[in-house]
Amino acid sequence: MSRLSKNALSALNGQSISLPKYDVDSLRCGIVHLGIGAFHRAHQAYYTHLSMNDTKDSNWGIIGVSLRRPNVAEQMNPQDGLYTLVEQSNDGNQYELVAAVKKVLVAPDSPKEVLELMSNEQTHIVSLTVTEKGYCHDPATGELNLSHPDIQHDLNNLSKPKSAIGYLISALYVRYQHKLAPFTVLCCDNLPDNGKLLKGLLLRFAFELNDDFCTWLKDEVACPCTMVDRIVPATQPDDIEALEQHLGFKDMAMVKAEPFKQWVIENNFCSPRPKWEAQGATFVENVAEYEDMKLRLLNGSHSSIAYLGFLSDCEYVSDVMENTVLNQFVSDLMEQEISLAVKEPDKIDIHAYKADLRSRFSNAALKHRTYQIAMDGSQKLPQRLLNTLDYLLKHNHPFKRIAFVLATWMHYVSGKKPVSGKKPVSGKNTFEVQDPLLGEFQKIEARYEINESNTDADSAQKKVREKVLAYLQIRQIFKPSFLQHTELVDAITEAYQSIKQYGVIDSVDRLCKSLKV
Ligand code: CS2
What we know:
By secondary structure, this protein is an alpha/beta fold. Helices cover 49% and strands 11% of the residues. It has helices spanning 9-12, 38-42, 44-55, 71-76, 111-119, 149-156, 164-177, 194-207, 211-220, 237-247, 288-310, 317-322, 324-337, 350-361, 370-374, 377-394, 400-412, 438-452, 457-472, 480-484, 486-516; strands spanning 29-34, 61-66, 83-89, 92-98, 101-106, 125-128, 137-138, 143-144, 184-187, 226-229, 255-257, 262-266, 282-284. The protein has a 5-stranded parallel sheet, with helices on both faces. Strands 4-3-11 form a 3-stranded mixed sheet. It has a 3-stranded mixed sheet with strand order 10-12-13, with helices on one face. Helix 17 packs across helix 21. The structure holds D-mannonic acid (CS2). D-mannonic acid (CS2) binds next to helix 11 and helix 15.
């Protein structure tokens, strides 16, 4: 079967796939995107594609950059950057061919080319989806981790950087030195106040370089905050096969996504930009309330679903929603705890928003793996659940469900599924934990595993408490105040012990009953 490329376009005409309405051969690039994964292709690149469809011009093409691996370049470049977006719902699939990405560069192979592009005045926007850990910061404090090996490297090798921060600084420094207009830095990762946070990291790095540059960066470079939303599971080999059956072409760069999409952007650009608002993006003066709502309700529930679900043998998010006990837990978590720490933003009906979330999580056509969401918890928990928890504790609001999720996460990071006496987990009991702080978790596990054996019930309980405290002492994740909150430590310890004894689902059931009394 032949590979999708520009040559295939005429054969696709008339098939059940929407084709670009702009001239794909004359794509000019105004955007460089760092971290071109599936999410960018299904979200920002798709909005840009819709915008070019609308205006029929091809002025806003994108050059994608991968900061580490060559796989996306290998998927996209042989296809002239083309890819299919497959929107999946229980009503069936919708297919759209996207041509907004001109090519993909692999930064470690061509750092000079990437920097030249970013330094060129034709580039108006540099956007990013480099995941939470790509910012080389401490998630608990939001500060740049100056001892991060990539930051250390970049401070000494600015012409051949490794990190996203290094690339941004290096290109902005050239623009500053040559008195060129800056580009807008558009952060599209799930971090609170993402634009502000990124600007803080850039300024911290620039402070090490040059004072005047620091001032220029502060005054001239806009880093709008954004709230991005679309559920985009990783593409699996059988998705590519199914699409091949449908299209008659092999598309190695396809992405699948839910039909829903949302983008709220701070109205703060220092450069021209596409008219994304004509495609449903919302421009506002302050994104914080939208961002908090999304991070806390959607992502907070998502991570909870991932840990509870994965340890209960639910492969997909929709499997969790099909389980009555877990489904009820997710609803109660949103209604009884998270919602207390969320303000309703302008023009949003929060009840409808939550109902939509439940139905989006239940989309069984989407096959979104709990394991995928569970990765990098150390980078995700602070903005998804811990800021909420902090608020709940300060206001004396209920918090036991979040404490339960934390206990589940503490089991998860051990890399072993808890085996309850009643229901042994099916399949393999151990699994690989993907997290930049895995080394820390392993140290804690090793310390307490030895001590846990051959102990009576009382000292076992004491050991569990010590283990919980050891996790809560990880400064990059948890606020020091959590350690002082006895009720919180008790609740996590109790939940941890219960999961060990009864497994996740029975423990959830017990917790729900105890909270309803
Ligand atoms: C998910 C998000 O993988 C994860 O951690 O929670 O990627 C989620 O699907 C998106 O933020 C939805 O907008």
